[in-house]
Design brief:
TIM Barrel, globular, single chain, eight-stranded parallel beta sheet, alpha/beta
Length: about 240
């Protein structure tokens, strides 16, 4: 009962998804949440979900994409997303490796409002903006939050005790993610791949089947069996989504 709560099967590197989905099923993956990142990728996400039953749709607007669109285009996309009834809003957030921080934050806040209206989780990207994300979460207090691939300072964890953290397979080579898993209660952990990125083997294309790698590593860190870890993470998924 494995879950991948954050991936991008709409990426051009996935030329044929049939074998990718079959490998995921063989590994025990029962749910894959594909995260849209722009209007075109949101629509491609819908197409993928129609074809593959285990793939669920999260729709959003990657912060690096937001700065490329006009306000009117973004507002129209927000209205369209609301009508699609996604399982979550993602990928959304802030990325301060890009400019126009005020515009990014304006629409991040609008996505938080939409998440509250639809009562669905927010799947949040936080690159180089972790502290600001935490400040906004403290201010607006959204109920359902997943911080995906959180790379911020671990001292910030004390300020976001009610959120979930999704952990990618790169944890096998990342001291940061290993330490994050040590500090975050098992009841607040989820698995993701961020496919095609964050693969457990450098240079390879990541895919949903690799959540099995993450579960195995989390189990080792927490000192429990893989079966216990799998059940706990699936229970977290069910409780949130």
């Amino acid at each position: 009962m494995l879950v991948d709560v954050h991936c991008h099967l709409d990426d051009s590197r996935f030329e044929d998804l049939d074998p990718v989905i079959e490998r995921a099923k063989k590994a025990g993956v029962v749910t894959v949440i594909n995260n849209g990142a722009s209007p075109s990728r949101n629509r491609k996400t819908l197409d993928i979900c129609k074809k593959y039953k285990i793939v669920k749709k999260a729709l959003g607007f990657y912060p690096g994409e937001i700065i490329e669109f006009s306000d009117s285009d973004i507002e129209e996309e927000l209205k369209w997303i609301e009508k699609q009834k996604p399982i979550a809003l993602g990928e959304i957030g802030l990325d301060f490796t890009f400019g126009e921080h005020e515009k990014q934050e304006k629409y991040f806040r609008k996505f938080i409002e939409l998440g509250a209206k639809l009562d669905i989780p927010l799947i949040i990207h936080t690159r180089k903006a972790e502290r600001r994300i935490v400040e906004i979460l403290e201010e607006l207090k959204p109920r359902k939050v997943v911080l995906h691939c959180f790379s911020g300072k671990l001292k910030l964890l004390k300020r976001v005790e009610g959120v979930y953290f999704s952990v990618p397979p790169i944890i096998v080579n990342s001291v940061h993610f290993q330490e994050l898993v040590k500090k975050v209660p098992l009841t607040r952990l989820l698995t993701e791949t961020d496919a095609p990125w964050m693969a457990p083997v450098k240079g390879e294309i990541n895919e949903p089947a690799n959540v099995a790698v993450t579960v195995k590593e989390i189990a080792k860190i927490k000192g429990i069996t893989v079966e216990e870890c799998t059940k706990a993470i699936y229970a977290n998924y069910q409780g949130l989504f």
